[in-house]
Specification:
Largest sheet: 3 strands, antiparallel
Strand order of the largest sheet: 2-1-3
Distance between the termini: 63 Å
Radius of gyration: 35 Å
Helix content: 40-55%
Oligomer: single chain
Shape: elongated
Length: 231
């Protein structure tokens, strides 16, 4: 008695396809690959959202120059609004001595405070203007905003000193006469005030971008089932 022959295994369903790689099932793009290509650029791999890097660098360069030049206005306002520090010159022997007329006065602190408050206001204003002109932001623009604010503070500091009273207090005392009160030159005692503008600009710009800046679309938390295309 002969044992029954074992039937051959069923042929592989894909063995008959000899023309290349196996095509993906219908609707596979709905699971992993977005329509229009794997990069989500609607088939054009060179297309990107927003301006190119070269354009952003050019905009950043313009922002640095514009923000820094506005430091001239800050220097003029500092010169106009800062309180004057009264000095008096006296002759002792053959030497001229210059001293504060009010030793307990707080005018020197007011000079630093005026510069700091003005710098904070200029930083906030420059951040608002830059955000309104370029809402998408970008790293080059943010760096330009901080660098321009620092350059503007340095320029304002030097402009205020140049516009203010003479730096040679002994010569000024000799000019006005002994015992006559005159104003001390503008002096920024707290050099940390130079950072008020860039810090305020970066903080305000970051807040505006977080509140009103463009946002990326949220991904679909429920992907389409395998083998079915989304409507």
């Amino acid at each position: 008695m002969t044992a029954p022959l074992t039937p051959p295994p069923p042929p592989n369903e894909r063995s008959s396809y000899q023309g290349g790689p196996v095509p993906p099932p219908v609707g596979a793009h709905a699971v992993g690959t977005p329509p229009g290509g794997p990069y989500g650029t609607h088939g054009d791999h060179g297309e990107q959202d927003g301006p190119g890097m070269l354009t952003e660098v050019r905009q950043a360069a313009v922002a640095v120059v514009a923000v820094a030049l506005s430091g001239v206005l800050l220097g003029v306002l500092w010169w106009k609004l800062a309180p004057s520090v009264p000095l008096v010159g006296e002759v002792v022997g053959d030497r001229w001595l210059v001293y504060l007329k009010e030793s307990e006065g707080e005018q020197s602190v007011g000079v630093d405070g005026t510069f700091t408050l003005l710098a904070l206001a200029f930083g906030a204003l420059s951040a608002v203007v830059v955000f309104l002109l370029r809402r998408r932001g970008g790293v080059p623009l943010v760096v330009a905003l901080g660098a321009g604010g620092l350059l503007g503070s340095l320029l304002a500091w030097r402009v205020g000193i140049w516009l203010g009273p003479a730096q040679d207090v002994v010569a000024h005392a000799k000019e006005v006469g002994k015992g006559v009160t005159f104003s001390a030159p503008l002096k920024l005692g707290a050099k940390g005030a130079l950072l008020a503008w860039p810090i305020a600009a970066l903080v305000v710009h970051l807040g505006l971008t977080g509140l009103f800046g463009p946002r990326d679309p949220e991904p679909d938390p429920w992907p389409a089932p395998y083998g079915k295309t989304s409507a």
